[in-house]
Specification:
Structural class: mainly alpha
Oligomer: single chain
Order of helices and strands: HHHHHHHHH
Helix content: over 70%
Largest sheet: none
Distance between the termini: 29 Å
Strand content: under 5%
Radius of gyration: 17 Å
Number of helices: 9
Number of domains: 1
């Protein structure tokens, strides 16, 4: 639980850096950021609402445990994202630097969540589902989905910042692709251990 909270905090901090640089990113987080620039609705509320349809997908494709873990992760990111502007001073970086730093920090947070059997919903649920069922590369799937989200977000941040945003998406996707095998192995091992435990329990 502590490790998961740390992953959520890192992700929230990365998003905080992106927002301070007026940069968007991919997935439901990026979509929520884009809309928050246009409407007087907080990122936290938007992030929660946008993820609801993906919770349903996760429930049927990934099971209850993964779904509840994802709901918890999204809730923690939402909570941390609400608290960071209160706790920390306003941070503004040059867009390219903010994109690189934010993308790298979000990438670390996302990998921590994946390796602990959770996600941040949205494209990540889709990426994990396709990786498990068809062995599709998680990073590439995520990159395609995220690029589409950023193209939508160009309206809110402009073309130049939109291009900077793609940098953050590329960094996150590259990190996911790099750790893909470790993530898959970790989740497989955890699943095997849980299955063995269930078998032993029923045997007793």
């Amino acid at each position: 639980m502590t490790v998961m909270m740390f992953g959520c905090f890192l992700t929230s901090f990365g998003l905080y850096l992106l927002k301070g640089s007026s940069i968007v990113t991919g997935g439901t987080a990026g979509l929520a950021l884009s809309v928050s620039y246009l409407l007087p609705i907080s990122f936290s509320i938007l992030f929660t609402l946008i993820n609801i349809p993906f919770y349903i997908l996760a429930y049927f494709k990934m099971g209850k445990k993964f779904t509840f873990s994802t709901i918890l992760a999204v809730s923690l990111v939402t909570l941390f994202s609400s608290l960071l502007p209160i706790i920390l001073p306003s941070i503004a970086f040059y867009p390219l630097l903010g994109s690189i730093m934010g993308g790298f920090i979000i990438g670390i947070g996302t990998i921590i969540l994946f390796m602990n059997g959770s996600s941040l919903g949205g494209a990540q649920i889709l990426s994990i589902t396709l990786q498990k069922q068809f062995n599709w590369n998680m990073g590439k799937t995520n990159f395609i989905f995220d690029t589409i989200v950023i193209l939508i977000g160009l309206y809110s941040v402009g073309i130049v910042r939109g291009l900077y945003s793609i940098v953050s998406v590329f960094i996150i996707s590259f990190m996911m692709s790099t750790f893909k095998e470790k993530i898959a192995h970790r989740n497989t091992v955890k699943g095997s251990v849980e299955t063995s435990t269930v078998v032993e329990t029923h045997s007793v």
